[in-house]
Amino acid sequence: MHGYFSRDAGAVLVKALARAPAGLLLGPRQCGKSTLAKQLLAQRSDAVILDLQDRADRARLQEPELFFEAHRHQLVCLDEIQLLPEFFSLLRAEIDRDRRPGRFLLLGSASGPLLRQSHESLAGRIAQVELTPFLLKEVAQATSWQQLWLRGGFPESLLAAADEDSLDWREDFIRTFLGRDIASLELGLPLPLMERLWRLLAHSQGQTLNASRLAGLLDLRSTRLKQLLAVLEQTFMLRLLPPLEANLSKRLVRSPKLYLRDSGLLHNLLGIETYDDLLAHPQAGESWEGFVIEQLIAAHPRWRPHFLRTSNGAELDLVLERGQQRRVYEIKLSKAPRVSRGFHELVGQLQPERAELIAPVDQAFEARPGIWVRPPLQACTTDDI
Question: pTM of this prediction?
Answer without folding.
Answer: 0.92
